[in-house]
Amino acid sequence: MFNLFEIDLEKEKILDMGAGVSSFGIEANKMGFNIINSDKIYNFDIKTLEDKCKADLSLICSKLENVKDKYVWKFFSNIKELKNYHKKTYEIFINDFNHHEYGKYVTETLPQTGFKDNTFSISLVFHLLFMYNSHLDYEFHKQSILELIRITSKEVRIFPLVNLEYKKSSFIEKILSDNDIKAKEIIIEKSPYEFVKGGNEILAIKV
Ligand SMILES: C[S@@+](CC[C@H](N)C(=O)[O-])C[C@H]1O[C@@H](n2cnc3c(N)ncnc32)[C@H](O)[C@@H]1O
Prior knowledge:
The structure is a single chain. By secondary structure, the chain is α/β, with parallel strands linked by helices. It has a domain at 9-18 and 109-206: Rossmann fold (3-Layer(aba) Sandwich). The protein contains five helices and seven strands. It has a seven-stranded mixed beta sheet. It starts with 12 loop residues before the first strand and ends with a strand. The structure holds S-adenosylmethionine. The site of S-adenosylmethionine has 13 residues, from loops.
């Protein structure tokens, strides 16, 4: 998703903001990387999380049937495969969250965190900013990006840039021309991963 192939990740301290019940940080840490997962849901108890994972996955899969044509069925061949994959993912998460074996969990949230300046070298946000642009307004996005810049020393990467209406978020253009957002470079990069049609772009902010 993040096109991280050219970055020597072993040397980086990486924040996964809004990491949720994904297994990315757990699996990467197991391989020797240094990923910190941040999400408000880490305040919840394990039973609540597990019940919510099950209910959310069933709901999402039932809704997908009617909008199948909005997705690229390449990484996942069909809804059944997607459901099995995500079930496996949340099981990895629940199991690790139970023991805190590989995952490093914190409960900081956007748009304001308690992290010190430059705590991380790379910050990643996936499936949170831009996606929910009808629930989270432009000011939330702007303050979140300013905060991510403050706590990151090299690069912030946000994926994807499409919203829940399957359209590129109108906030992208506003961010690109917002004079308050100061960075060395802000570019849109292609991602090799595309599930939502058109959702194959990353906003890369070189701090
Ligand atoms: C759609 S999920 C994405 C989870 C994960 N990044 C993934 O792609 O599988 C969005 C996540 O953002 C978290 N979230 C919502 N508001 C947030 C905020 N203000 N700051 C940080 N995380 C937030 C939610 O709790 C949820 O886990």
